[in-house]
Amino acid sequence: SLGLIKKDSDQGSMCDTSDVGSSSPTQNQDIVRPVGIQSLSPHILRYIFSFLAVQHYDYLNHRTHTLYHHLGPLTLVCKSWNAIASPLLWQERTFHGWKAGEELNTFLQQTENADFSSTHEYGEFVKRIEIIDSHDVVDKQNGQFVINWITPDVVLAMSEHCSKRLRDLTLVFATGRQVSTENEEGLIPWGALAESCRRLFMLSLTNYICPVLAVGNGHPFHMFATHTNPLTELVLKRCKNIPPETFQQLARTCGKALTKLVLLDSDENLGSAEMIEFARHCPNLRHLNVSWIEFVPPKINDEVVLEMTSNCLRLEYISLLDANEISDVSFQTLPKLRYLRNLILPRAGSAQSGMAYRQESLVALAKSCKRLEQLHLVAPGATTSRFFEALLFCPHLQVLVIAELCKGLLIDQRFKTLGLAKYVDPETTDAYKLVWHKKT
């Protein structure tokens, strides 16, 4: 029986071999199934989803944001698509306008993840948050067309549920909002925000009024300056009552990490000593924009500029709207900044202050800073033909603004060779403002 079985098996194997041998070549090939979108790797799907993004350029902060607001329907397709689209959809959150309050409350409820049926911890995906107080609703208490979305409870909720990956925070407070001077009630919990958001690198505040408290009594914003992660970008616009010690502490805390510093419409608490601290402790600054409110006297002097040109050698953008107190002594050091692209000193060295830049200093600036793209100066009587000849060393020059220029200077032919068009704006009877820009 074993022999018969073996024989039958041999015959069966022989039959099978003969059948395979007699089969056509196409039958031996594996069946190739069509590739569907479900079979693509997450990396490829993420790349495909990126084409639904919208690029938004922020002109105030000079940077581009990538928004994925159109990925909502993709999160409802399947679990794999939801796992890829949700982190992209939730990484940028902006709240402003009439529905900001309702959207903000919904957002905070979802980040708390109180419902166990939630698919993700959505707060862990958030990388950037922007909240702008509304100016469209009447506040009956003070009669202003503002409403405050940014409350201590909102900031505390963000620090608890959106702190894992939060990198960029922008808060635009309502104008005229007064913060309480009490120790607890009505104060933004900056300390909790600094301790929880350890990945926060960019902070932008507008219209923030600090409480009038001594630094030694636990000033909330000073605690933030002490315990926060070293920031790469610090933007403070129309912020009042920030103590001078807090500015100095921010300079020491940020240190080498800080690359962009914007302090616009500052009050008298920001002075030359605070600017010197930023220049000393932040050598990697690339963007500097500083100005004061109208009734505050200028704070930028020669000591500030000398410290800046000695330590911050990688500066690319400088805008000092109130630098009336600088003289040619500090202007001579600007050629050290070889990476300089934009230099804006619109009210520096005016004729009223009696300070004017020498011709040699302007020529040295033009010859050394060959990457200049924009140049705004007040240089009465110093911009002679030698200065314009030196500007030929700046092939990337796009905009040139010179106020109080000598009226007898003939430079039309020189700037035609640079492709610049001239626009003359008579500001006063004794001075002219000439603007050149690239022809488009």
TrEMBL record:
Biased composition (Polar residues): 11-29
Chain coiled-coil ranges: none
Source organism, top-level taxon: Eukaryota
Pfam families: F-box-like
Gene3D superfamilies hit by this protein: 1.20.1280.50, Ribonuclease Inhibitor
Biased composition (Basic and acidic residues): 1-10
Protein name: F-box domain-containing protein
Domain (F-box): residue spans on this chain: 43-95
InterPro entries assigned to the protein according to its UniProt record, in alphabetical order: F-box_dom, Leu-rich_rpt_Cys-con_subtyp, LRR_dom_sf
Annotated stretches, region: Disordered: 1-29
